[in-house]
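Consider the following assembly input.
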Amino acid sequence: MSDTSSVIEFRKVTKRFGDVVAVAGNDLAVRAGEFMSILGPSGCGKTTSLRMMAGFEQPSSGEVFIRGENVTGVPAYRRPVNMVFQHYALFPHLSVADNVSYGLRQRNPKPSKAEIDRAVDGALAMVRLEGYGKRRSYELSGGQQQRVALARALINRPAVLLLDEPLAALDRKLRRDMQIELQNLQRDVGITFLLVTHDQEEALSMSGRVCVMREGRIVQTGSPRELYDQPVNRYVADFVGKTNFFAGPSPAEVLSIRPEQIEIATSLSALPEGLMARLPVRVLNRIFLGEHTEYVVVSEKLGEFMVMAPRKSERDAGVYDIGDMIAAGWRAEAERILPNT
Amino acid sequence: MTTTPRPKLVTALLLAPAGLFFVFLLLAPLAVVLLFSFGERAPAGGYVPAFTLQNYMDLPARGKAFFNTLTLAPFGTLLTALFAFPMAYFLAVKTSPGWRVALLILVMAPFWTSQLLRYYAWMMILGNKGIPGWLATLGIADVRIINTPWAVLIGAVYGFLPLMVPPIYVSLEKLDKRLLEASADLGATPIRTFLQVTLPLALPGVATGSMLVFILLMGDYILPQFLGGGKVFFIGNALVDLFLQSRNWPFGAAVSVALVAIMFVTIYVYMRFVLSKSGTRRAALV
Amino acid sequence: MTKTPDYFPARNFIDELRRYQKGSVTRRHFLGVTGLGLATAVLGGAVPGLRPRKAYAGLTGTLNVTTWPNYFSQENYDNFTKQTGVPININVFGSNEEMLAKLQAGSTGWDVLVPTNYTISTYKSLDLIEPLDLKLFPNYDPAQQDPRFLGPGTIDGVTYAVPKDWGTTGFIVNTKSTTENPASWKDFFALAQGPLSGKATVHDYQLTTIGSAAKSLGYSFNTVDPKELAEIEKLLVATKPHLFAVTSDYQPAMRNGDAAMAMCWTNDAAQLNRDLPEMSYRLGKDGGEIWVDHYAVIKGAPNRDAAYAFLDFILTPSINAKEIEAHGTPTTDARVLKLLPESILKNPILYPAAGQLSVLEYGAAETLTNPDRAELMARFKSA
């Protein structure tokens, strides 16, 4: 009954470290060829999940399948998956080429030297590091080391490439570039990528599907759009994108309205037609973000909330100053009642 | 522009103690030894100034001592490293941090008792009422350990383990455990991971420990005297006899110069070899 | 049938260790083999409240005495300090050769030295010790010394050193582990190569090892004749593979049964026999060494006055008797003999029959400096 299209599957996987439950009875399926992310704050169990896929940890209960085969209890060196470590974990005593060929050299039978050399050249070309084979890893920049780590893993054509916060050590600009590069690479090689990150923007921008975790449990799995538009609870709505929370119809519920779905105008009458809510508000703060301007406003009834105004309206209506009395409102579709968990 | 000389002066002052130590306690005595090695033995023993190469030509008279030292010292170093590595590995990798300190102290503990007392203990352990006596009760009779090269090697392993374990321990402790995971992840069995990652990365520690032990073993004479019973004759023993018994200082000086030269060359070659082979020069420094 | 196991129980092990620790070890070589060379202990220090006795009034400073390990009475030395206000700094050495090497190297700051007979003429010719002024230590009485011990300290009628204690170099046999009954050095070397192969030890010391081997071949204990030395070398090198050890620290091997026969000095013999009655000490019928240690004063001693005061003090018969009781080595002084208990006087190890002594020889000065004997010893040791 396992879905044949899934390369990695967790069935009721639980991991305990002493009294601490790091992963609590999760089911998860990674589909062949997709780019999936596991998103969550530190300590949510995402890295432990990844390590159970790689084989560094074994589940306390439950089963792990790779390509439909039960690999529970199988050690890391016998699993057809490879990992890119957070700090790359390149071997300092080996050249770049020897790092990249490491996986091939562990095979039995060992490929010929010519085969290995050809594969290494190909892998280095793939990550745009032609001619770097003889260098030592510590002679390379962070971005280059990152790419060596990728080549070292991808050369083995793993069933799944596991990426443990691979971009965390890079600076912001480089991180953007590498995100794009990773996406292109994944498309080119057609290998399933599973990325673990705490950076929601990274997860949303790169992956086809995102799995949000909290305290060892999977809260929601879906496309970035689904998570953004249809979060299953307050936690997902808060973690994926920015939102305003207001008191819900009952204490167990909460009202969520995304800041970009709130309209603002100079006065209540200047607001467009068809809005469900219309309120007078005062501007408390304004942050210019380029294509958007972020306002914090306060209404007598609802308190403070955030509004994201696109550039277009700014041109139309001008920039509101702190202290200005203006009006805000939203359509019925913007309101989302979520469980307060 | 008074700022530039000052750091230089400070540097000079900071280096002064080590520099003076080096010059007066190492270079100056070495110069004296070199000078003496060209002299002649006074009739009643000691040194009279002269210039002769006779002392160097007489070196083959201590050929056996050089041979014993140059075979047993490297072998003893190797054995010590072979025993120390698993201990250091256990301490650095398999032991919880709480136990680590206690166990490290235990490794060093033998240093707190007199070396002579420890060698006397070994004389009894290796003597005929010790291990050979035990073996005899098991039916393995006439095993001779004490006063053989094996006894000296056992003593070397025992005596120098506390010097060999810490440097290896440090290099293993420094070793990034993620490298071991990376190796396993790439398909290497635990044994291959050990051989391809752990061992090469611990080599700087092994090299440091080996140098310490090798140098001490090359110059040792108490160990061969006690556990070799005067039947295992090292250069150190030859030197003690030449300086303190027959008082042929010039010949003793020539033997010393030869010993220092051999040590120097051996260490140089060894360090070059180990560091270039393992390629860990940089990694060892980082 | 219960039988005591051959291997040692843990408690014996500790006892043995303690014994070595306390210093029941070879006089001459223990520190020699450790190479520590010189161990210094400051005794007394400042002893306030004790007035120097009148006879020793006016002494100041510290007295440096250079001697052998376990070769003095601590109580006597403490009393000297109490009476004179002069603390004693003790330097102990492993061998005469080492003492000489140190003195040759210069500026030792020593005052009193305890050299063995065969070294005194060399010290004198190297101008390292001074002719003694006998008037300065009236408690020494040459007339009361056994005349045979007065020779080595007197050169051309001048006294350079006065006798302290004497002894012999023979061999000790564990009569429980062998039924062999060696009586000569010839027997010794024959047994070492034959029935007691792997169970005999000789000294790590050219004088006694070469000398005793010489006796077994019928040569002088002190031979430096190249032809005779060549024969001695052949004998020693042939014996070497059969020896248990070449060591002057043979008590441990004798005690735990590794060795059954050892070249041995009087005081080691006395200690071994005291603890283990099966240890039988013999002097070679074919000869061997008799030795006598002396007190001498270093030329240019920094504290010459205290040095003479010390000689006067320590050679006082009642005080000297306490010395002998402390370290057990035979005295040369007839007045001291009268004060010693029967147990010491009747001990044949300490006081062998006069007939046995007549064949023994003193070590000769030449052996100390002869390069051939030194090289022979080195070749033997590295063989």
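Chains C and A do not touch (no CB pair under 8 Å). Ask yourself how this observation constrains the way the partners meet.
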